[in-house]
Every structure is written in C-alpha cells, then in structure tokens.
Amino acid sequence: MSSEQNKLQFTMSNLSSNIQNVEASRSSIEDADFAAEAADLAKN
Length: 44
Prior knowledge:
Blueprint: H1 2-43
C-alpha cells in the first residue's frame, strides 16, 4: 500500500512540475510574440 502511495505521490509531483514548466514556456512564447508584434508596429 505504501509503495503504491509513493508512486502516486511521485506521479503527482512530476505532473505538477510539468504543468509549471509548460505554463512558464507558454508565458515566454506569448511575451516573445508580443515583443515581435510591438517591434513590427513600431517600424510601420
């Protein structure tokens, strides 16, 4: 029982970490796109 609980805890922790990494990546991508669009608008 304890072994299964440890596996589930590890999986939950791993998924939580992955979610945080995806959110950070998404934020960086959105910021990069905004910066590129702002630069394009400034040129025109």
